Structure formats: C-alpha cells, structure tokens
Predict the 3D structure of the following.
Amino acid sequence: DPTTKSFKDLGLLNCPAGSGFSPFSMGVDRTSNAYVLYVNADPLTGEPIASKLFKVDTQTTGLPCTATSFQPLSTMLGFGMGFSTETMGGTTDKLYVAGSNTAATTSTSQLATIDTTTFQITPVPGGTIQGSPELTGNANAELWAFFPDPNSPKIQGVNKQTGAAITPAPLPAQLKGEPAAWAFAFYGGDYWIFLAKASANPLDPNPGPTTVYQVSPQGQLKGMTATTNRRIVGAGVSTCAPTVIL
C-alpha cells in the first residue's frame, strides 16, 4: 500500500511451472490480472535457460494461475515487464518487455511487446535498451525503466518505438550496490524501486532483504521502506493507478 507503506499478503503464488523455475518478473493489467514470468536459470552463471508466462487472477482467493501459450524469443528468455496505455489518459494498454539471455546488468536488452490475448511476442524494430532494466508504465502512455548498478543506478523514460532513453536520472547513493533482485512500479507520480543487494561478504551467497525506495521522476529519494525478510523479484501496477496524488 503506497499510502501506509505496508504489505498485505494476498496468498501463495503456486503456478505449475515445474522443477527449477522461479518467479522472475511481473506485470499487472487494468483488470488486476498479473502476468508472471517464471525462469529456469543456470545454477552456475545465473543466466536464463528457459522461461514460461502465467496469468494470475489476483482478485480470487487462492490466486488461480493459468498457463499461457507464450513462447519466448530464443534471444530473450529473461525480461522485465510493464504495462503502458496506448494514449495519454486512454483505457487500452499494452505489455512491454525488455530483456536478453544474460544476467549481467551491463547487457543490451531487446524491447518487445506481448499480446495478452494471443501471447505472441513482437520485437520493436531496432528497439534496444542498454542495460538490464525492469519496466513500468502509467496512464500517461509513458514507459519507464530502472537500471540497477553497483555504482551508477538510474531511472529513465523509454521511447516505445525505438527503446531510446528519455530524460535519464541518476539515483542517490542509497541505491548503489551489487544488485541481487529488483523490481519497479509507478504510483501517484513517483517511482517505487524494490531492491535487494548482494551481501558484502563474498562468502555469503544470500542477499539481504528487499528495501523499497520511493523516488521522483528526477531521481530524488523521497522515502525508504524496509521489508521483513522479503526478497521481491516482481512488481506490477495497473495503468488505472493515479498519475498524481491530490
């Protein structure tokens, strides 16, 4: 809840992805359906070797999960996700994704869209993004990306036709650090970054819990919220969410 900055558990996500798969990213449409990407990653490199997309009904007890017919591109098995309206103030949105087959935050990601009726994925012609971002959109027909980085984390708008950067904004020192899990969402004119950092101890393979950072479009830190032993890998927001708080 962005007002109280508290969590409300809806239930256990239990999609039939199979052995080795775990949630990787999530987007939420205007009717509160969550689209959850499950990835099977190489245990040595962390790079994705297979992925599946599920549709989850977040309004029904038990969180019914339905397998989709989605077939990923062989060159982007892992990706970030976010819905954006087609027009400013419109009521039709589209699911944008950006990703690759590497776990490195310095990789080049392909920008694409997924039709949530046919589950066909369509690359944006020539659309590439430098980095490994998570995505979020809003009712202003904007698409935004969060780029974790040990030294230079940032957010930026994304041109939906080309993937080009729009008004990139560096983030403050609190968001620097080796990223272990990250997610990104928009609400009320601000951006909400969910970031778990790798342990500073190289002998400790377990990252710390996720911290939620509230930032302005200019990258100004407006608040931090600790979580209780949560490691958040996906966040989604409907394009019905307010673009300003009155």
In short: DSSP finds no helices and 16 strands in the chain.
